[in-house]
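Q: Hi! Curious about what WD repeat domain 41 looks like structurally. Here's the sequence.
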Amino acid sequence: MLRWILGGREAQSSAEKSPVLCIGEEQPKNCFTELQVLKGHFDIVRFLVQIDDFRCASAGDDGLVLVWNVETGERLQELRGHSQQITAITTITCKNEVTLNTSLITASSDRSLSLWDPDTGNRVQTISDLHSSVKCLLVLERLCVWLSGGEELCVWNRDFQLQCQRPNHSDTGITALIELPKNYIAAAMDKKIMIYSLTVSADSSVSVAEIRCLSDHQDQIRALINVNDGFFASGSHMGELILWNATEWNLLAYEHILWEESQAYNQTEIRMGAPKPSEMSIQHLTTNGNLILAAVGSGLYVYSIQTRSVVAYRKVAHDSNVLHTMLLSDSELMSCSEDGSVRMWEIQDLPLPAEPASSGFFGMWSFGRSNKQSGPPSKKVIDIPNIRMLELMGDLIGHSGAVQMFVSFKEKGLVTCSADHLLILWKNGEKQSRLRSLALFQKLEERGGL
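A: Let's find out. The predicted structure is below.
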């Protein structure tokens, strides 16, 4: 077990400046001051999935799936069977007369699908020799089926029997799947979102039909999420964020993150330093039903469902692209990046008076368009009333490679995975110190003191 002193609260204008907390300074809100390194993988760890209140599974490019106890850091199971990298992983819960049993479904570049028992480590079912590798998985518990997406859309029952399938119409294949109300499914394919209808017959057979094609994005869709029962959202490689109606599938709001180029950028030597297209890309979207948090390049942007506008942002939140995000509440959030860091943020009001702002710092959003063809003139962020900022509250430095994602177990801790082949279990250092002291006192009491 290691003790770690981490950067705390600061009020600087860029996230690059996060000094280590010194003795006597104000204590940060970051409670994750103790870490435990978990080893077992020998390649990039890309996926984490929570199994229950005390276990998670990790998977990545080595084809291994490892099951961990997040309370102790113990490696519980090694699931071996895939010969190539894991491309998708999810949980599926089966009900019996007494208990709920949670299993793992994995997909791999070896063109196979597997069902695992995380309690024993056994592979219960496997499907080999698929036409292509599966890129995404979606479990529909209430219909007792699950779906796989890749070069085709397949529907399977709990016994791993194929119910139906449909080819897609995109060279990139299906990259994301989400469930919509009334037995509908949304699938991201390149620049389009396909809406499918699932029908379950009296004999439990399932059929799938293509209902609508949503083609409002101008570039490849990188993220697709459910917001709540009424909305879903998608984000593209060129920074488009679209809010959709989940039952009628019409476009409700369209926001585009823009990089404004001044006339000085016409000079060749300055143009070389202009932002790359990847810096506009939406790598990840997350939501709590009220807000949408978008990871755009190395920045973070918070979008309000109610007001249909950006309410807070940080243009440079990390040194490199942000890969994963999470909204802890309506005012707190977390992000991880290719730069190897995990950062905690708080939404705060801008200081008064505000610092002078150039168009390059604020002029990157266009607002208020209900569609791309028409609408009022775009407004700069500085013109939006009540705009707020993201203030850095804590910096978790432990990984030496890009942090791919993280899973929160609330008071039990936080698990991160990285390109450095490691997982790190982050815990509340003060709480862990109290627990160790309590355990020591109990042992002393049992032994009758020193």
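A: A fun detail: The longest strand covers residues 86-95.
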